[in-house]
Amino acid sequence: xxxxxxxxxxxxxxxxxxxxxxxxxxxxxxxxxxxxxxxxxxxxxxxxxxxxxxxxxxxxxxxxxxxxxxxxxxxxxxxxxxxxxxxxxxxxxxxxxxxxxxxxxxxxxxxxxxxxxxxxxxxxxxxxxxxx
Length: 132
Hints:
Layout: H1 3-22, H2 37-48, H3 52-63, H4 67-90, H5 104-131
Helix pairs in contact: 1-2, 1-3, 3-4, 3-5, 4-5
């Protein structure tokens, strides 16, 4: 099985985990009341797997592109996604500073936005380089 296919399958699986954890109360995995250990764990798991959504999006895009473009993107991705997941894991659940609030949600959003921007730059740059 090619690396493209493995990345696509893994991103699909982890995207399903993200969706299940974000909607854990609605689908009945956790009790419907707001403060439970299950829902706290599900929300933390959802924040941890938040960077997987852009990974899934870009794995679909690069799946249909040339192998060289995928390899350039994959070299960046295999470092960035685990590092962003570690940063999310180490971030506090709730912000305690009013001036510079840092929590899991903000770190997850920031790492995902940076991932999207850098991925777009890498893919476009490599595509233009291969055209010439």
